[in-house]
Amino acid sequence: MKETLKNRLYIKILAADLISNFGDILYYLALLNYVLQIEQSNFAIAIINTSEIIPILFSFLLGYFADKNQNRVAAIIKTLVIRTAAYIFVAVIIGFDPSLFIVAAVSLVNFISDLAGQYENSLYYPISNQLVRDEAREQVMAFRQSLTMSLNVLFQAVGGILICYISFRALAMVNALTFAVSMMIVLCSKKELRKYCQNDNRATPKEKQSFSQLFSQLKKELADAVRLLWKIPGIKETLAVIPVLNAGLAVVTSIVVLCMADDPTFCVISPEITIALVAICETVGRIAGSTLTIFTFKKLKLTNAVKIILLFIVVLFSGIILQNIYIVLAALFIASLWTGCVDPKMGALIFNNLDQTKLATAFGGMTTYFQLGDIISKMLFSVLIMYFSAKITAGVYIFITVAALGYIIFQDRAKK
Hints:
The protein has 17 helices and no strands. By secondary structure, it is mainly alpha-helical.
């Protein structure tokens, strides 16, 4: 761990990522405040949310192209140039009178920027893989996750203050500046980064492909990635149940709000404070889990951590049925804590067991797979609350979670 923190190149890459995160958070907060000035704010919010969700569905495709890229460092610089130029453009148009058209244009730019950002992250995978020893990877990934989430909380607070004092145009320029600073860090480290792009010389030459050929190649790459992932101990069972795990956590805020609407006593002091506490429990829990992974949970089995999360998701929805907000908050904190432990463990297993030329494809496919679980869960929740009460909806999620818990326990016993 200490040797990695002394690695100047790793710290530079981490700093570039954290700086751009600040710009993204600041811009998103600004955009949400901007829509309040528009009459059709509900449509504007729907447009913004769509622009945030859809890029995730392209993760596998972007990972595939990142793995095939023959000049990673140049491609990383190009993505940062695109993102810098994109938000300079936003700074120009956001100065006009607020309208739904401006929100749509800005959301389109945000969509393009997010795609470029995902592609950039995919390009970094083999570089990061070589910068960290296998033995230290889990602790390093836990440290990175803990630091990123902690700073994101700070960035949200700073962003909330800045929004009160500077214009939307200035906020867009600040976001553009964060990407420009990240680009300068990469430019200054270009020679060092190229040393870690060993797969560039082995990359296949670019050939024009028809759509059918590309589709066939993507199917083959996805099948290969799944086959390789399945060979990693503990991954198969975990991958099968994580969408269920994410599905439960994805609707917690919504079901708590629904319960408060039905029963005003289902809160801590006030509805506003309760909603804030839900976010705090989840964020602080994940940070605590990441931190404990560095020092305490080094030898913890991945599937055991997943079982604990599923168990406390059952407790969480039981709290909904019992109309006890304190059970809900406590279970959410514990489930989030163990989720913060699972993320770096799974990431380390994949990094340590896959060929670096397949990393972006594998991670991209996993991201899309996990996010589809969130999307399906939210759609299911939207349908359930139209016909059933919050308690019956919670019961459905308990049934699904218990089934997933039973599956992973059965698989563990079958192995033994």
